[in-house]
Amino acid sequence: MKKILYIILMISALWSFNACSKFDDFNTDPNQTSEVSPSLLATNLILQTMQYPHVGVDFLYKDMLAKYISYMEGANNYQYNKLDRTSFASLVNLTNVQKMQDAAEGSVTASTYKALGHFIRAYTFFRLTLAVGDIPYSEALQGEDDIIKPKYDPQKEVFIGILNELDSAAKYFASGRNFDGDPVYKGKIAKWQAATNSLSLKVLSHLWKKTADPDLNVINRFNNIVTTGPLFASNSDNFQTTYSNLQVEYYPFYNSNFRKYPIMSTTIIDKMKELHDYRMFYYAEPALAQINGGETPSSWDAYVGVDPSDNYSSIAARYVANQISGVNPRYYALQQGEPTFLLSYAEQCFIISEGILRGWTGGDANDLYKKGIIAAMQFTALNTPDDVKYHHGMKITTTIINNYVAQASVALTGSTDEKLRKIWQQRYFMGFMQDGWNSYYEYRRTGYPELPVNPATNLNGVTSQLPLRWMYPSKELSYNRENVEAALARQYGGNDDTNERMWILKD
């Protein structure tokens, strides 16, 4: 993605130009456009959907909550499970969807831009409802129709709306043409069709407790997508942000002043050592105390994690003594870093494998599971320079991958529950420094892997568990209180609490 900043600035300038005074109209340069093209709006919408909103330490919050790391600048709320209020700021981005579609009306790519609009709306509403539960949907973004205080739709209706939006996206992409303004897939319709279906499968996986509801039609939808496609076929299909050596496009943790503070947790290190997962050497740095004690960087014993739920002062003492592994320097030393995916081929394989085990579709669950692991390991290897300081002499090769998936401890064997846990473990491994809040949502959905909870240090209101949601935005309480309170009464007995259980989590 090139010149992100310049594109966004151009859009702002053009919208300001369209709002000019009558005096400005007399001074319009006939050689400059006075309208924003659908391709320019598409670029902005896609980038706003793809980009991480924060850099530096903020980029690590998701990894703290999912217990991949501890953070040593100070006791952090996310490490100790304190969630506050979220934001609906991403809804503002959707105001340009209709403008993009209107600008394309009558053109040969009108169908394509309609499809893109539905995809972006679906993804945005999906992320918002996962965070809080009921959200404005049917009346959202209708300020021009004087609906400035939109009602909150029940989460079931929101999910039906999301699935319908994705159905519309699939339909319009099927009749669409390749288009301009796409920084992810270069306007290739086939790629967007696969991304739409992959997102649909991900949405459906969160409805696994709702398969008896005929309004959702979860199983039939899932089976139809798997059997008719198109779907992602390799890592090259990932819906991901790729960074560069341009300053405005650096990897979010590159050259961070906070690079010395994240340290690895036992939650991921111990399990990777148990399974002899070579990704550990790409994720972590050896603990200096272990190296000083005679271990080499290629030794499994050189890598040590810490229980992220432990008392901060106890962790700090081990941190100061250099007893804990830090994150691999590739996360802060490389401008381009690795891509950050929101949808990936590997995850799609794991989702379908789980669906097969649940009886939602036919196929070979083991084959999809292995393909998912292979893709996830290849992603790490191919997006890391072949330099000993980044893989510590333990390079991931085809032979290493094949030996890994053949291990009895990794192979998809055992009871259905044991097989599901193996799938979920692999999804957890691939989420390190990746995919937003997805690993937390997967833990919330499945309860696996078992993340450490220490009642003595847990800042959550219920000290025996991780929180289940964020609270509604303070701006909503200020400007749309009546509808927020109606949603809270309907869902949570009026309590805007982080431990209330939303509809998708209920049996």
Descriptive account of the structure:
With 507 residues, this protein is mainly α. It has 2 domains: 58-84 and 237-469, Serine Threonine Protein Phosphatase 5, Tetratricopeptide repeat; 89-231 and 471-507, Serine Threonine Protein Phosphatase 5, Tetratricopeptide repeat. 48% of the residues lie in helices and 3% in strands. The chain contains 23 helices and 4 strands. It has helices at 4-18, 22-25, 38-50, 61-65, 90-93, 95-104, 110-132, 155-174, 189-205, 218-228, 266-275, 279-283, 288-292, 312-320, 330-333, 345-357, 365-382, 388-391, 398-406, 416-430, 438-446, 474-479, 481-492; strands at 69-71, 239-241, 262-264, 340-343. The strands form 2 sheets. It has a two-stranded antiparallel ribbon. A two-stranded antiparallel ribbon has the order 2-4. It is globular. The model is unreliable at 1-33 (pLDDT under 50).
